[in-house]
Design goal:
By secondary structure, this protein is an alpha+beta fold. The chain has eight helices and 14 strands. It has a seven-stranded antiparallel beta sheet, sandwiched between helices. Strands 1-2-14 form a three-stranded antiparallel beta sheet. It is globular.
Length: about 270
């Protein structure tokens, strides 16, 4: 069932974005190599996604920002157990802000999200940030997408919590989180494009295996666990170019996600 849905989604996305026969567009590997497996940033396969892109380096995560969607295309972390432990002792201080390093004509503003009905959903989570400076970085709108509030506060919160538990156990993980814009009826809040889906890639250097959660940006959505290379075909990005195809097929066992219904993230939005 899910495979059929994915196949239809891929077909729609390819027809809408002209992915068939597209050349690979290389992201700037020099930008934030410490956050990526093998020091290699993802490669944008769909050239339309590469329009008005700009890499942004932060202390503990890196972003590829799109001036077309006015969101990140991805946020990447080399998530270490020590950072998670430090983050647990850090109280949350919301400080959402427009990213001053981006041109005004390409960036999201706070006004875009005002009364939109969507949460400002973190891609690199606030809960992963080990210090005040990194926490403030995570509230840059360059790291934010319009996310369904119920999705953000419950099932997505559970996914983020599961990744933190895995990082403690594994010692470190490489994590790439991003939006997908599939189909032809995408919505906007202000000038910001609302993703149809969200994903989170997790790669364990210790196990030399990875997998991804892929979920619709809806209140009642259930996450699916899929191989990395399958996700890459869906989103039009080579997310882990340092790995070969066989490496990407080696599935990491991801925890079963239980909806965090009744729970709430600190501050209600992450």
């Amino acid at each position: 069932m899910f495979q059929n849905l994915v196949t239809r989604a891929i077909s729609t996305a390819l027809l809408a974005a002209g992915l068939l026969g597209a050349a690979v567009v290389q992201a700037q590997d020099a930008a934030c190599p410490v956050h990526y497996v093998g020091g290699r940033a993802p490669q944008i396969v769909n050239p339309r996604l590469a329009q008005q892109t700009r890499p942004l380096c932060f202390n503990v995560f890196g972003v590829m920002h799109s001036g077309v969607t006015r969101t990140p295309l991805w946020s990447a972390e080399h998530l270490r157990a020590g950072n998670i432990e430090a983050a647990q002792d850090l109280s949350r201080e919301d400080s959402f802000h427009a990213e001053s390093r981006l041109p005004p004509a390409q960036r999201a503003e706070l006004a875009d999200y005002a009364r939109s009905g969507f949460d400002r959903g973190h891609m690199a989570p606030n809960g992963d940030m080990p210090d005040r400076g990194s926490q403030r970085d995570s509230f840059s709108l360059a790291n934010i997408v319009p996310q369904d509030g119920e999705n953000n506060r419950h099932v997505w919160a559970a996914i983020e919590g599961a990744v933190r538990k895995m990082a403690k156990k594994e010692g470190d993980l490489y994590v790439i989180t991003g939006p997908a814009f599939l189909g032809t009826n995408l919505r906007q809040v202000g000038k910001v494009l609302v993703p149809s889906h969200l994903y989170k890639v997790v790669y364990s250097p210790r196990q030399k295996a990875g997998a991804a959660w892929f979920i619709e940006n809806q209140a009642d959505a259930k996450p699916n666990v899929i191989p990395i290379n399958e996700l890459e075909r869906i989103v039009g990005i080579n997310l882990l170019p340092a790995l070969g195809e066989r490496d990407k097929e080696r599935m990491l066992r991801l925890p079963k996600i239980r909806d965090n219904t009744g729970g709430r993230k600190r501050g209600g939005r992450d």
